[in-house]
Protein backbone atom coordinates (compact mmCIF):
# COMPACT_ATOMS: atom_id res chain seq x y z
CA UNK A 1 0.00 0.00 0.00
CA UNK A 2 2.78 2.42 0.93
CA UNK A 3 4.45 1.65 -2.39
CA UNK A 4 1.29 2.56 -4.34
CA UNK A 5 0.89 5.85 -2.48
CA UNK A 6 4.49 6.73 -3.19
CA UNK A 7 4.10 6.04 -6.92
CA UNK A 8 0.89 8.13 -7.09
CA UNK A 9 2.58 11.06 -5.37
CA UNK A 10 5.49 10.92 -7.80
CA UNK A 11 3.14 10.93 -10.83
CA UNK A 12 1.25 13.95 -9.48
CA UNK A 13 4.47 15.86 -8.86
CA UNK A 14 5.65 15.04 -12.42
CA UNK A 15 2.42 16.40 -14.01
CA UNK A 16 2.54 19.52 -11.84
CA UNK A 17 6.13 20.16 -12.93
CA UNK A 18 5.17 19.83 -16.61
CA UNK A 19 2.30 22.24 -16.12
CA UNK A 20 4.53 24.83 -14.44
CA UNK A 21 7.13 24.54 -17.21
CA UNK A 22 4.49 25.10 -19.91
CA UNK A 23 3.06 28.09 -18.06
CA UNK A 24 6.45 29.73 -17.77
CA UNK A 25 7.20 29.16 -21.47
CA UNK A 26 3.90 30.69 -22.53
CA UNK A 27 4.45 33.80 -20.39
CA UNK A 28 7.97 34.19 -21.74
CA UNK A 29 6.58 34.16 -25.28
CA UNK A 30 4.00 36.85 -24.46
CA UNK A 31 1.05 34.45 -24.12
CA UNK A 32 -2.00 34.76 -21.90
CA UNK A 33 -2.58 32.60 -18.85
CA UNK A 34 -6.17 31.50 -19.00
CA UNK A 35 -6.44 29.97 -15.51
CA UNK A 36 -10.22 29.69 -15.72
CA UNK A 37 -9.94 26.78 -18.22
CA UNK A 38 -9.69 23.43 -16.35
CA UNK A 39 -9.27 20.05 -18.00
CA UNK A 40 -11.20 16.90 -17.17
CA UNK A 41 -8.38 15.75 -14.93
CA UNK A 42 -8.42 18.98 -12.94
CA UNK A 43 -5.25 20.40 -14.53
CA UNK A 44 -5.60 23.96 -16.03
CA UNK A 45 -5.35 24.14 -19.83
CA UNK A 46 -3.50 26.83 -21.85
CA UNK A 47 -5.11 29.00 -24.55
CA UNK A 48 -2.52 29.49 -27.32
CA UNK A 49 -4.61 31.87 -29.44
CA UNK A 50 -2.36 34.86 -28.75
CA UNK A 51 0.94 33.11 -28.63
CA UNK A 52 3.45 34.58 -31.15
CA UNK A 53 4.20 32.03 -33.85
CA UNK A 54 7.86 32.75 -34.29
CA UNK A 55 8.83 33.77 -37.87
CA UNK A 56 5.22 33.96 -39.12
CA UNK A 57 4.36 37.46 -40.54
CA UNK A 58 0.86 38.86 -40.61
CA UNK A 59 1.68 41.38 -43.40
CA UNK A 60 1.11 45.18 -43.43
CA UNK A 61 -1.05 46.64 -40.70
CA UNK A 62 -2.09 50.15 -39.73
CA UNK A 63 -0.95 51.91 -36.59
CA UNK A 64 -4.26 53.45 -35.58
CA UNK A 65 -2.62 55.44 -32.81
CA UNK A 66 -0.95 57.56 -35.53
CA UNK A 67 -3.70 57.32 -38.16
CA UNK A 68 -6.45 59.42 -36.65
CA UNK A 69 -9.29 61.70 -37.65
CA UNK A 70 -8.31 65.30 -38.29
CA UNK A 71 -10.09 68.61 -37.72
CA UNK A 72 -8.80 71.47 -39.89
CA UNK A 73 -9.57 75.15 -40.45
CA UNK A 74 -11.24 76.36 -43.64
CA UNK A 75 -8.56 77.51 -46.06
CA UNK A 76 -5.71 75.97 -44.08
CA UNK A 77 -3.72 72.98 -45.31
CA UNK A 78 -4.92 69.72 -43.77
CA UNK A 79 -2.90 66.52 -43.42
CA UNK A 80 -4.17 63.01 -42.87
CA UNK A 81 -1.45 60.64 -41.69
CA UNK A 82 -1.39 56.91 -42.32
CA UNK A 83 1.30 54.83 -40.56
CA UNK A 84 1.73 51.33 -41.94
CA UNK A 85 3.98 48.69 -40.33
CA UNK A 86 5.60 45.76 -42.12
CA UNK A 87 4.83 47.19 -45.57
CA UNK A 88 7.77 45.32 -47.03
CA UNK A 89 8.21 45.72 -50.76
CA UNK A 90 4.55 46.29 -51.33
CA UNK A 91 3.40 49.40 -53.21
CA UNK A 92 0.06 51.10 -52.90
CA UNK A 93 -0.32 51.35 -56.69
CA UNK A 94 -1.27 54.53 -58.59
CA UNK A 95 -2.33 57.49 -56.47
CA UNK A 96 -3.20 61.11 -57.16
CA UNK A 97 -1.08 64.03 -56.06
CA UNK A 98 -3.86 66.33 -54.91
CA UNK A 99 -1.42 69.19 -54.38
CA UNK A 100 -1.04 69.36 -58.18
CA UNK A 101 -4.55 68.19 -59.13
CA UNK A 102 -6.72 71.13 -58.08
CA UNK A 103 -9.89 72.94 -59.06
CA UNK A 104 -9.45 75.57 -61.76
CA UNK A 105 -11.17 78.91 -62.41
CA UNK A 106 -10.92 80.08 -66.02
CA UNK A 107 -12.10 83.06 -68.11
CA UNK A 108 -14.83 82.67 -70.70
CA UNK A 109 -13.26 82.13 -74.10
CA UNK A 110 -9.79 81.47 -72.69
CA UNK A 111 -8.15 78.03 -72.79
CA UNK A 112 -8.53 76.16 -69.49
CA UNK A 113 -6.29 73.36 -68.23
CA UNK A 114 -7.08 70.76 -65.59
CA UNK A 115 -3.98 68.95 -64.33
CA UNK A 116 -3.95 65.43 -62.94
CA UNK A 117 -0.66 64.15 -61.45
CA UNK A 118 -0.54 60.40 -60.84
CA UNK A 119 2.32 58.66 -59.03
CA UNK A 120 3.34 55.02 -59.44
CA UNK A 121 1.23 54.60 -62.55
CA UNK A 122 3.58 51.93 -63.85
CA UNK A 123 2.47 50.38 -67.12
CA UNK A 124 -1.18 50.88 -66.40
CA UNK A 125 -3.37 52.65 -68.95
CA UNK A 126 -6.57 54.51 -68.26
CA UNK A 127 -8.34 53.04 -71.25
CA UNK A 128 -10.08 55.02 -74.00
CA UNK A 129 -10.42 58.78 -73.59
CA UNK A 130 -11.59 61.63 -75.82
CA UNK A 131 -9.38 64.36 -77.23
CA UNK A 132 -11.80 67.25 -76.78
CA UNK A 133 -9.48 69.64 -78.62
CA UNK A 134 -10.32 67.73 -81.82
CA UNK A 135 -13.93 66.82 -80.94
CA UNK A 136 -15.75 70.16 -81.05
CA UNK A 137 -19.12 71.66 -81.87
CA UNK A 138 -19.74 72.33 -85.56
CA UNK A 139 -21.70 74.97 -87.47
CA UNK A 140 -22.65 73.89 -91.00
CA UNK A 141 -24.51 75.36 -93.94
CA UNK A 142 -27.84 74.03 -95.16
CA UNK A 143 -27.20 71.64 -98.04
CA UNK A 144 -23.43 71.49 -97.49
CA UNK A 145 -21.91 68.28 -96.09
CA UNK A 146 -21.28 68.51 -92.33
CA UNK A 147 -18.68 66.50 -90.40
CA UNK A 148 -18.56 65.83 -86.66
CA UNK A 149 -15.13 64.58 -85.61
CA UNK A 150 -14.48 62.38 -82.56
CA UNK A 151 -10.85 61.61 -81.67
CA UNK A 152 -10.42 58.70 -79.23
CA UNK A 153 -7.04 57.70 -77.77
CA UNK A 154 -6.21 54.17 -76.55
CA UNK A 155 -9.37 52.74 -78.05
CA UNK A 156 -8.05 49.20 -78.27
CA UNK A 157 -10.62 46.79 -79.71
CA UNK A 158 -13.62 48.77 -78.51
CA UNK A 159 -16.32 50.13 -80.79
CA UNK A 160 -17.21 53.78 -81.44
CA UNK A 161 -20.87 54.64 -82.02
CA UNK A 162 -22.73 57.84 -82.90
CA UNK A 163 -26.06 58.61 -81.20
CA UNK A 164 -28.51 61.42 -81.98
CA UNK A 165 -29.92 62.78 -78.72
CA UNK A 166 -33.08 64.25 -80.19
CA UNK A 167 -34.67 60.81 -80.40
CA UNK A 168 -31.92 58.68 -78.75
CA UNK A 169 -31.34 57.06 -82.13
CA UNK A 170 -28.28 54.92 -82.88
CA UNK A 171 -26.94 56.27 -86.16
CA UNK A 172 -23.71 54.31 -86.62
CA UNK A 173 -21.64 51.69 -84.82
CA UNK A 174 -18.12 51.20 -86.01
CA UNK A 175 -18.33 51.80 -89.75
CA UNK A 176 -21.86 50.42 -90.06
CA UNK A 177 -24.93 52.64 -90.45
CA UNK A 178 -27.99 51.76 -88.34
CA UNK A 179 -30.49 54.28 -89.66
CA UNK A 180 -32.65 54.31 -92.77
CA UNK A 181 -31.53 57.89 -93.39
CA UNK A 182 -28.59 57.24 -95.70
CA UNK A 183 -27.36 60.81 -95.33
CA UNK A 184 -25.52 59.66 -92.19
CA UNK A 185 -22.20 57.87 -92.78
CA UNK A 186 -19.41 56.82 -90.40
CA UNK A 187 -15.90 57.43 -91.71
CA UNK A 188 -12.72 56.08 -90.12
CA UNK A 189 -9.16 55.80 -91.38
CA UNK A 190 -7.40 52.89 -89.61
CA UNK A 191 -4.22 54.94 -89.46
CA UNK A 192 -5.86 57.67 -87.37
CA UNK A 193 -7.77 57.92 -84.09
CA UNK A 194 -10.57 59.98 -85.66
CA UNK A 195 -14.13 58.72 -86.05
CA UNK A 196 -16.19 61.04 -88.27
CA UNK A 197 -19.95 61.29 -88.57
CA UNK A 198 -20.64 62.69 -92.03
CA UNK A 199 -24.07 64.23 -92.73
CA UNK A 200 -24.82 64.88 -96.37
CA UNK A 201 -27.30 67.57 -97.42
CA UNK A 202 -27.97 68.70 -93.81
CA UNK A 203 -31.15 70.59 -93.04
CA UNK A 204 -31.97 72.91 -90.16
CA UNK A 205 -33.91 70.09 -88.47
CA UNK A 206 -30.60 68.19 -88.15
CA UNK A 207 -29.39 70.72 -85.59
CA UNK A 208 -28.94 69.30 -82.10
CA UNK A 209 -26.75 67.20 -79.79
CA UNK A 210 -24.83 64.21 -81.13
CA UNK A 211 -22.85 61.86 -78.89
CA UNK A 212 -19.73 59.91 -79.74
CA UNK A 213 -19.87 56.82 -77.51
CA UNK A 214 -17.23 54.18 -76.75
CA UNK A 215 -18.33 50.65 -75.84
CA UNK A 216 -16.61 50.35 -72.48
CA UNK A 217 -18.29 49.03 -69.31
CA UNK A 218 -20.02 51.27 -68.51
CA UNK A 219 -20.00 53.19 -71.84
CA UNK A 220 -18.33 56.60 -71.99
CA UNK A 221 -19.44 59.40 -74.31
CA UNK A 222 -18.61 62.88 -75.53
CA UNK A 223 -21.37 65.22 -76.73
CA UNK A 224 -21.14 67.74 -79.54
CA UNK A 225 -23.63 70.25 -80.92
CA UNK A 226 -24.34 70.56 -84.62
CA UNK A 227 -25.84 73.86 -85.71
CA UNK A 228 -27.16 73.93 -89.28
CA UNK A 229 -27.71 77.49 -90.45
CA UNK A 230 -28.90 79.08 -93.65
CA UNK A 231 -27.04 82.32 -94.43
CA UNK A 232 -29.22 85.23 -95.51
CA UNK A 233 -28.13 87.40 -98.42
CA UNK A 234 -29.88 90.73 -99.06
CA UNK A 235 -29.27 93.74 -101.28
CA UNK A 236 -30.47 96.93 -99.63
CA UNK A 237 -33.17 98.81 -101.53
CA UNK A 238 -34.11 95.88 -103.80
CA UNK A 239 -35.67 94.32 -105.73
CA UNK A 240 -35.55 97.34 -108.11
CA UNK A 241 -33.55 100.55 -107.99
CA UNK A 242 -33.92 103.69 -110.14
CA UNK A 243 -30.77 105.77 -110.60
CA UNK A 244 -30.37 109.17 -112.20
CA UNK A 245 -27.95 109.23 -115.11
CA UNK A 246 -24.56 110.62 -114.08
CA UNK A 247 -24.99 109.72 -110.40
CA UNK A 248 -23.23 106.90 -108.52
CA UNK A 249 -24.74 103.43 -108.32
CA UNK A 250 -24.18 102.18 -104.77
CA UNK A 251 -25.29 98.58 -104.26
CA UNK A 252 -24.91 97.14 -100.74
CA UNK A 253 -24.92 93.34 -100.30
CA UNK A 254 -25.29 92.05 -96.72
CA UNK A 255 -24.53 88.43 -95.69
CA UNK A 256 -25.89 87.35 -92.28
CA UNK A 257 -25.97 84.13 -90.19
CA UNK A 258 -22.91 82.68 -91.87
CA UNK A 259 -20.69 80.38 -89.72
CA UNK A 260 -17.69 82.21 -91.14
CA UNK A 261 -17.21 85.21 -93.43
CA UNK A 262 -17.50 84.26 -97.11
CA UNK A 263 -14.04 83.75 -98.64
CA UNK A 264 -15.13 85.79 -101.65
CA UNK A 265 -18.13 87.72 -102.96
CA UNK A 266 -18.68 87.79 -106.73
CA UNK A 267 -20.61 90.60 -108.42
CA UNK A 268 -22.09 90.00 -111.88
CA UNK A 269 -24.11 92.14 -114.27
CA UNK A 270 -26.24 91.45 -117.31
CA UNK A 271 -28.04 93.83 -119.65
CA UNK A 272 -31.50 92.55 -118.87
CA UNK A 273 -33.15 95.76 -120.04
CA UNK A 274 -31.92 94.96 -123.54
CA UNK A 275 -33.19 91.36 -123.23
CA UNK A 276 -29.69 89.85 -123.31
CA UNK A 277 -29.32 87.63 -120.28
CA UNK A 278 -25.62 86.74 -120.63
CA UNK A 279 -24.36 87.23 -117.10
CA UNK A 280 -20.82 88.54 -116.92
CA UNK A 281 -18.53 89.12 -113.96
CA UNK A 282 -17.88 92.80 -113.44
CA UNK A 283 -14.45 93.91 -114.60
CA UNK A 284 -13.16 96.47 -112.15
CA UNK A 285 -10.23 97.32 -114.44
CA UNK A 286 -12.29 97.95 -117.60
CA UNK A 287 -11.54 101.01 -119.74
CA UNK A 288 -14.84 102.47 -118.51
CA UNK A 289 -13.32 103.07 -115.10
CA UNK A 290 -15.08 104.23 -111.94
CA UNK A 291 -16.07 100.72 -110.80
CA UNK A 292 -14.93 99.49 -107.37
CA UNK A 293 -15.90 97.11 -104.57
CA UNK A 294 -15.45 97.59 -100.83
CA UNK A 295 -15.98 94.48 -98.65
CA UNK A 296 -16.05 94.41 -94.85
CA UNK A 297 -15.93 90.89 -93.34
CA UNK A 298 -17.18 89.90 -89.90
CA UNK A 299 -20.16 88.26 -88.22
CA UNK A 300 -22.14 90.30 -90.75
CA UNK A 301 -20.30 90.76 -94.03
CA UNK A 302 -21.04 93.77 -96.19
CA UNK A 303 -19.95 94.32 -99.80
CA UNK A 304 -20.45 97.67 -101.58
CA UNK A 305 -20.40 97.86 -105.38
CA UNK A 306 -19.79 101.44 -106.58
CA UNK A 307 -20.35 102.47 -110.21
CA UNK A 308 -19.60 106.13 -110.79
CA UNK A 309 -21.16 108.32 -113.51
CA UNK A 310 -24.00 105.92 -114.26
CA UNK A 311 -24.99 105.56 -117.92
CA UNK A 312 -27.71 103.73 -119.78
CA UNK A 313 -25.54 100.63 -120.46
CA UNK A 314 -25.13 100.28 -116.68
CA UNK A 315 -28.79 99.32 -116.38
CA UNK A 316 -29.61 95.66 -115.83
CA UNK A 317 -29.58 92.94 -113.20
CA UNK A 318 -26.76 92.98 -110.66
CA UNK A 319 -26.16 89.79 -108.65
CA UNK A 320 -24.22 89.42 -105.42
CA UNK A 321 -22.93 85.82 -105.00
CA UNK A 322 -21.18 85.02 -101.67
CA UNK A 323 -19.04 81.88 -101.80
CA UNK A 324 -20.90 80.27 -98.86
CA UNK A 325 -24.42 81.69 -99.23
CA UNK A 326 -27.24 82.00 -101.70
CA UNK A 327 -26.98 84.76 -104.32
CA UNK A 328 -29.27 87.78 -104.41
CA UNK A 329 -30.09 90.08 -107.34
CA UNK A 330 -31.40 93.60 -107.87
CA UNK A 331 -32.69 95.26 -111.06
CA UNK A 332 -31.15 98.68 -111.72
CA UNK A 333 -32.71 101.27 -114.07
CA UNK A 334 -30.62 104.29 -115.11
CA UNK A 335 -32.99 107.14 -115.96
CA UNK A 336 -32.14 109.94 -118.36
CA UNK A 337 -34.64 112.34 -116.79
CA UNK A 338 -36.92 112.82 -113.84
CA UNK A 339 -39.36 110.05 -113.04
CA UNK A 340 -42.64 111.37 -111.65
CA UNK A 341 -43.42 108.25 -109.60
CA UNK A 342 -40.00 107.90 -108.05
CA UNK A 343 -38.46 109.13 -104.81
CA UNK A 344 -34.98 110.62 -105.03
CA UNK A 345 -32.37 110.12 -102.30
CA UNK A 346 -29.08 111.76 -103.08
CA UNK A 347 -29.16 110.92 -106.79
CA UNK A 348 -30.46 107.36 -106.20
CA UNK A 349 -34.16 106.95 -106.97
CA UNK A 350 -36.43 104.31 -105.43
CA UNK A 351 -39.86 103.83 -106.98
CA UNK A 352 -42.71 103.27 -104.59
CA UNK A 353 -44.15 100.38 -106.64
CA UNK A 354 -42.26 97.74 -108.59
CA UNK A 355 -42.02 98.23 -112.34
CA UNK A 356 -43.92 94.98 -112.93
CA UNK A 357 -46.93 96.40 -111.10
CA UNK A 358 -46.86 99.53 -113.27
CA UNK A 359 -46.71 97.45 -116.48
CA UNK A 360 -49.58 95.28 -115.25
CA UNK A 361 -51.64 98.41 -114.65
CA UNK A 362 -50.97 99.61 -118.19
CA UNK A 363 -51.96 96.21 -119.64
CA UNK A 364 -55.20 96.15 -117.66
CA UNK A 365 -56.03 99.67 -118.91
CA UNK A 366 -55.42 98.75 -122.56
CA UNK A 367 -57.52 95.58 -122.27
CA UNK A 368 -60.33 97.60 -120.71
CA UNK A 369 -60.39 99.86 -123.71
Summarize the structure.
With about 375 residues, the protein is mainly beta.
**Within the CATH hierarchy, at the fold level, what is the topology of the domain at 232-364?**
Immunoglobulin-like
Approximate shape? elongated
- How many helices? 2
Side-by-side strand order of the widest sheet: 19-18-22-23-16-25-24
- The amount of beta strand, in percent, is 25-35%
Derived from helix and strand composition plus strand pairing, the structural class reads mainly beta
CATH architecture tag of the domain at 232-364: Sandwich
Termini separation: 170 Å
The number of strands is 25
Helical amount: 10-25%
CATH class of the domain at 232-364 equals Mainly Beta
User: Unreliable runs, pLDDT <50, ≥5 residues?
Assistant: 26-36, 48-57, 271-279, 340-369
Q: Sheet bearing the most strands, described?
A: 7 strands, mixed
The radius of gyration computed from the alpha-carbon positions, rounded to a whole number of angstroms, is: 45 Å
SSE order in H/E notation? HEEEEEEEEEEEEEEEEEEEEEEEEEH
Q: At the fourth CATH level, what is the homologous superfamily of the domain at 232-364?
A: Immunoglobulins
Mean pLDDT across every amino acid position: 76
Amino acid sequence: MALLLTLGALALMSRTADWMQGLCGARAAGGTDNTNAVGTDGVPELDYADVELGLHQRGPFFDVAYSKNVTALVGKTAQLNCRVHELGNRTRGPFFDVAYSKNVTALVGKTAQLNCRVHELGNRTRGPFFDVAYSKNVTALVGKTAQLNCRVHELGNRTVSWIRHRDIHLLTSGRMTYTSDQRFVSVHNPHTEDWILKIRFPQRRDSGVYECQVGTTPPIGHRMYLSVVEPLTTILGGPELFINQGSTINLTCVVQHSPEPPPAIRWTHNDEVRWTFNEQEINYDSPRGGVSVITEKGETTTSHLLVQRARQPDSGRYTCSPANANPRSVLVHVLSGEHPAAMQHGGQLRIQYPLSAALLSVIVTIMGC
